[in-house]
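We now fix the convention by which a protein and its fold are recorded. The integers have meaning only within a learned vocabulary of local backbone shapes. The record below shows the convention in full.
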Amino acid sequence: KLHVVNDLRRAIEAREFELFFQPIVEIQTGDITGLEALLRWRHPGKGLLKPAYFIGLAEQSGSIMLLDQWALEESCRHALEWNRLSLNRKLIKVSVNFSPRNFPLLDCGEMVGRVLRSTGLNGKLLNIEITEGALVKDVEASIATIRYLNEMGVQVHLDDYGTGYSSLLHLSRLPVSHLKIDRSFV
């Protein structure tokens, strides 16, 4: 673990992380309505690594805020460029996953605001995806953060719903705009 954590710190400085964008398609029309940013680590010795390999250790070591911020900045820059180049003038949103460890913090909302201002992306073109585990730790702080993001036009999507321990009561209180039900339920 220590070796991976040290490798992770080096990788952040060496900019070894990449984003891959998975299309979000409207079923009725087949139109791409958005793209979800997927973080990968291009490790010089181990090749392309998925988040399952490094996210847990990034959370434990405190490096996750740097990764979340980097992914957000890069995603916003890409979304701004895609929408500038769009020929059909349909706006394309970008969805970015946030760590459950960072989300309920108001600093998370302030970071999103700073990134939107620095990149020039309209908040209406950004979705933040969080897992239900991020919400159950501190429901009131999560609600405040979601409202703060909503004020900027940012929508919050609850990802992998059904894998954690949140109740329908919590769900009814949350000002999330989309619910992504975990595959195990479907």
The mean pLDDT is 87.
